[in-house]
């Protein structure tokens, strides 16, 4: 990892990557798409969140799907691009883009919950674990109809699954060409913790039996 307190000529690329990834993360696709569709202010609808789940509450499934894909893509692209400079830059880009989505400067640091963008980061770092996390999210969402619970289960599973995959690679049970690195485990655990913190109100409602299902009320 570059010494972030070292000489400027050595550390400016890592800061540039962090800033670029953060700014990409701040793009509120859900907000833009609903305004373009003439649906008004997304933050006045449902939970007030800018993510795909709240866009779905407008009744426009296509817009919700587009928001999901775009929020995911803005997680994948910076990580993939940062890979040109090395794995350390990918870690910085992954962390910064999620922080940008959750705390966008343009929206007074009141952004989304980071689920789709985190899944996008996963695809940029280790697609096998990303596919597993998406499958778990989809299964929980389809069976129980709780978007928040799906995220709370799927995202913390990702660093654990990656740790297990790396162990199986070391033991020869899985091929080494499957992407993923030990330092990614720490990043994914930190991002999962942030996303869970962003879901604190949802967790309270889940425990009280008051959490709305997908497509209903607040969330």
Would you kindly provide a written description of the structure presented here, covering whatever features stand out?
This protein has helices at 8-25, 29-36, 52-56, 61-82, 87-102, 115-125, 127-144, 147-170, 182-198, 200-208. The protein is mainly α and 219 residues long. It has one domain (8-208). Helix 2 (29-36) runs antiparallel to helix 4 and helix 6 (115-125) packs antiparallel against helix 9 (182-198). The chain is globular. The termini are far apart.
Rounded mean pLDDT is 91
* Overall number of structural domains: 1
Order of helices and strands: HHHHHHHHHH
Structural class call reads mainly alpha
Helical segment tally? 10
Number of strands: 0
Cα end-to-end separation = 38 Å
β-sheet strand percentage: under 5%
Biggest sheet architecture? none
Unreliable spans are none
Q: Compute the gyration radius: what is it?
A: 18 Å
Overall geometry = globular
Query: What share of residues is helical?
Result: 55-70%
Quick tags:
mainly alpha, 219 residues, 0% strand
Secondary structure elements and pairings:
Elements: H1 8-25, H2 29-36, H3 52-56, H4 61-82, H5 87-102, H6 115-125, H7 127-144, H8 147-170, H9 182-198, H10 200-208
What is this structure, in a nutshell?
The chain has helices spanning 8-25, 29-36, 52-56, 61-82, 87-102, 115-125, 127-144, 147-170, 182-198, 200-208.
